[in-house]
Specification:
Layout (H helix, E strand, L loop, with lengths): L7 H12 L3 H20 L4 E3 L3 E8 L2 E4 L6 E4 L2 E8 L1 H12 L2
Antiparallel strand pairs: 1-2, 2-5, 3-4
Helix pairs in contact: 1-2
């Protein structure tokens, strides 16, 4: 897959080539999976993909930050953030891929 960014189209093409679904079915499958992941995150559920990693939503409290240019203190509002924790299998594969470089 060309470039340094994996896109939805790249995922759909990979499904098309490896699974044998039509391009349209492959695209719909990728969209459905991504939409289900998004909806689970919105509901605050943890998304665990075996051998890949875990996505979860974490709530952050309000805190005081600092503007790096002016040094002025600025309140940072409470928010929910998405966190990804890679599995040990994924970590090992990434480390192994770096050894050949």
């Amino acid at each position: 897959m060309p470039g340094n960014t994996l896109t939805r189209a790249d995922l759909a093409e990979a499904v098309y080539q490896q699974v044998g679904l039509s391009r349209s079915e492959s695209s719909n499958l990728v969209e459905t999976v991504l939409e289900e992941i998004c909806q689970a995150a919105i509901r605050g559920e943890t998304i665990k993909l075996s051998s890949f990693g875990t996505f979860s939503v974490r709530s952050k409290n309000e805190r005081v930050g600092r503007n790096p240019k002016t040094g002025e203190e600025v309140p940072i509002t409470p928010r929910r953030v998405m966190v990804f924790r890679p599995s040990n299998i994924l970590k090992e594969r990434v480390l192994e891929s770096n050894k050949g470089r």
